[in-house]
């Protein structure tokens, strides 16, 4: 099982919350310790682990529990979402050049699976209907060229070679012009791997990159090397500038550190992963699925998501009912404006009502300012006036008093009273429409 140790390490965190009613600062201490330990054992780098744990614990005590969701399930969901974020959020697609050929330059240390990836990638792109060509640029190991030729034959993709006596940048240049002649869509360039990073290797890569102007420069790294892989991605990016990484050998007993650290440490995404020795074993890196696999709790995740969705709907229902049932005197008006203010943003509230028109931030600010003015006027009304808006409608003296006491103009008071009556009418209309099904915009 991929990342099995990490999965079971995290499991002990959830288990410690079994039987708890809520998530508190106190009862998440132990589970957070488990999460921290599990990540460190998976070879995630320490600063990454620290940030991760901090963020998860902040959220854990910050969120209210969704009804029906237990604290341990809630924590699973928080950790899941944070893992997805850690791995870059969205899948990071390969980029293709506007005019063919797209050039993909592959770099990597010896033995990481770079040659295999060349052929796998050609195979992958060929299945998407793209014509490919491989360029053998690893001139230091004749065996590497032979291997690439064999793999190219296996997947049915031409391999351009010049043997070992020509400079890699020269091979690259010639290979590229050959590809242009043949109207190839994607050119994949294999480069020399060394056992360790050295200056010669970097200089050669820089030369080849300069000649090719590649759309993608991908560093192939071995998942078994954990956080070391993330460090390599950082170094190569600083030295030659890369667009992403390909993580190989994810099928082995790797611990997860590389998959979890690369994006966070280097800022560069993992674009593809190798999950076996066969030519078919290359696929895009989906942070979402990866997080799901690590947690191994797909059912819990979808349950929590559904519960959250239901909760959002119930909130909206509740709000709708409140608006509908109000016979709308100034007390209701005040209650609602305060409820809205407490909820923070009008946008959110309006957004919760299905079918309601979208509003701009400027409109929201304006609305919030108006609410403050209204509130000031309602606050100085007598209880009687609040319950019977008619009193104010009929008496200029009362309106004058409210205006003076609240520091607003008589005109503003009149407007407020008129608005309340308009609102009553609109509520009634809205109710009628809602019974019929659809809801119009409230913005007149
Ligand atoms: P290079 O030196 O970087 O070109 O590495 P190779 O492509 O020659 O691969 C080195 C070894 O790793 C070979 O035996 C490959 O079959 C193996 N290998 C490459 N990718 C994967 C992978 O995703 N999973 C597994 N299990 N083995 C792989």
UniProtKB/TrEMBL annotation:
Region (Disordered) location: 384-409
Record field: compositional bias (Basic and acidic residues): 384-397
Span of domain SRP54-type proteins GTP-binding: 269-282
GO biological process, one term: SRP-dependent cotranslational protein targeting to membrane
Organism: Populus deltoides
EC category name: hydrolase
Lineage, top ranks: Eukaryota, Viridiplantae, Streptophyta, Embryophyta, Tracheophyta
Catalytic activity line of the entry: GTP + H2O = GDP + phosphate + H(+)
Name of protein: signal-recognition-particle GTPase
GO cellular component assignments: signal recognition particle, endoplasmic reticulum targeting
Residues of the full protein shown: 59 to 502 of 547
Family: Belongs to the GTP-binding SRP family. SRP54 subfamily.
């Amino acid at each position: 099982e991929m990342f099995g140790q990490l999965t079971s390490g995290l499991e002990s965190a959830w288990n410690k919350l079994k039987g708890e009613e809520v998530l508190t600062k106190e009862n998440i201490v132990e589970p957070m310790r488990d999460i921290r330990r599990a990540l460190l054992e998976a070879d995630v780098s320490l600063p990454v682990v620290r940030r991760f744990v901090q963020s998860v614990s902040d959220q854990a005590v910050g969120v209210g529990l969704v009804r029906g969701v237990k604290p341990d399930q809630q924590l699973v969901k928080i950790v899941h979402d944070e893992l997805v974020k850690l791995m870059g959020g969205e899948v990071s697609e390969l980029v293709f050049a506007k005019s063919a050929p797209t050039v993909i330059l592959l770099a990597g240390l010896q033995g990481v699976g770079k040659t295999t990836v060349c052929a796998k990638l050609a195979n992958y792109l060929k299945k998407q209907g793209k014509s490919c060509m491989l360029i053998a640029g690893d001139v230091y190991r004749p065996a590497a060229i032979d291997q690439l030729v064999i793999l190219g034959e296996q997947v049915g993709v031409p391999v351009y070679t010049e043997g070992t006596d020509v400079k890699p940048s020269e091979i690259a240049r010639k290979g590229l012009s050959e590809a242009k002649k043949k109207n190839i869509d994607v050119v994949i360039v294999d480069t020399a791997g060394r056992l360790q990073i050295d200056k010669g290797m970097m200089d050669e890569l820089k030369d080849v990159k300069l000649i090719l102007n590649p759309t993608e420069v991908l560093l192939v790294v071995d998942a078994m090397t954990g956080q070391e892989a993330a460090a390599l991605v950082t170094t190569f990016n600083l030295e030659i500038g890369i667009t992403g990484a390909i993580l190989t050998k994810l099928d082995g007993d790797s611990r997860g550190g590389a998959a979890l650290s690369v994006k966070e440490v280097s800022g560069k995404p993992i674009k593809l992963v190798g999950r076996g020795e066969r030519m078919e074993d290359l696929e895009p890196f989906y942070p979402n699925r990866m997080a799901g696999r690590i947690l191994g709790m797909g059912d819990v995740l979808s349950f929590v998501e559904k519960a959250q969705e239901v909760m959002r709907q119930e909130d909206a229902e509740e709000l709708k009912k409140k608006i509908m049932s109000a016979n709308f005197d100034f007390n209701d008006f005040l209650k609602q404006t305060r409820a809205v203010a407490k909820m923070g943003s009008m946008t959110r509230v309006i957004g919760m009502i299905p079918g309601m028109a979208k509003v701009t931030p400027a409109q929201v600010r304006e609305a919030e300012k108006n609410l403050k003015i209204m509130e000031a006027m309602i606050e100085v009304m007598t209880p009687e006036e609040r319950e019977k808006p008619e009193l104010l409608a009929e008496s200029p003296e009362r309106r004058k008093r409210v205006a003076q006491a609240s520091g607003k103009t008589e005109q503003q008071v009149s407007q407020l009273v008129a608005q309340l009556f308009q609102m009553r009418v609109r509520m009634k209309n809205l109710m009628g429409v809602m019974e019929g099904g659809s809801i119009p915009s409230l913005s007149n």
